[in-house]
Amino acid sequence: xxxxxxxxxxxxxxxxxxxxxxxxxxxxxxxxxxxxxxxxxxxxxxxxxxxxxxxxxxxxxxxxxxxxxxxxxxxxxxxxxxxxxxxxxxxxxxxxxxxxxxxxxxxxxxxxxxxxxxxxxxxxxxxxxxxxxxxxxxxxxxxxxxxxxxxxxxxxxxxxxxxxxxxxxxxxxxxxxxxxxxxxxxxxxxxxxxxxxxxxxxxxxxxxxxxxxxxxxxxxxxxxxxxxxxxxxxxxxxxxxxxxxxxxxxxxxxxxxxxxxxxxxxxxxxxxxxxxxxxxxxxxxxxxxxxxxxxxxxxxxxxxxxxxxxxxxxxxxxxxxxxxxxxxxxxxxxxxxxxxxxxxxxxxxxxxxxxxxxxxxxxxxxxxxxxxxxxxxxxxxxxxxxxxxxxxxxx
Length: 395
Fold this sequence. Notes:
The chain contains three helices and 33 strands. Helices cover 7% and strands 43% of the residues.
């Protein structure tokens, strides 16, 4: 079955028969594409293209259009043509604190933050190409150096998911806070506030996956555990927070912590708990299971066509949140099947292109504009297409 998923406005052609054929194909897609399998084209990026390593753990696009990739061997910046790689250099204090990276994030002030597996957080200064380090010490500092996710709120505060829980960082500027570190003057200091839920959760979290962190477009901060969604209310004047339980659900696994998602077009939240739970709105009303799948895929994305991308064993599943239709994607290049079976991250950039990071097999890029048509009979003149009641196509 050939599926036309990303369709542009129909353009006039001189062939009436082609219009009829196109109508038949479009009609079949809309009426029977509940579960389809498509072999599509991905563009690959690996070490031969300048990527520093094949293990890509996180992807983000900055406000200038650069793509940033956190890998197990340094930070990569891509301008559409070339990669620039930032590495840890032992003899230079203001380089990356570690090459073993887990995440990368740009905050509302345009600052690039980088998380490491065991060495804390770095803040990148693009004017000097240097990095300021934040890690666990004996004084006020991070409570964990194992960083898994970085997010930010509208105030510029940074929220961090670590192996030991959720933490908030706020930078404060001022001459009195100025200090010198290496050769770089840093005119601010950082304040660190760990977020603890309750005693039972804190005792259990060592036996489960790390707590989930999500900040929606309304600037609401949520933490997920194995069976609950909590909202964090932070008071900037008192530097204190309170937690409110917003939703309780059946745990799919005592060691699995699900992820929250936001469907901005549909104006609602979703919960990825192996089952995809869709709420009717932003207030967790009318939860409804809309899809079940086999794998535990934490990092997902919703593209501009409202397709939810999921890594589902040896294929990529696209669940359309408008229609409920499901596409299963595989690559038409056999060598890319390993990357598809080891997806670590999905990211949709500002042009609608979906970037896919993998665990050891580099990057895949999917451009929907390049996947509008598939050539079935190259070199053949097709005069008519017909369909029967079983939705088979004849030429």
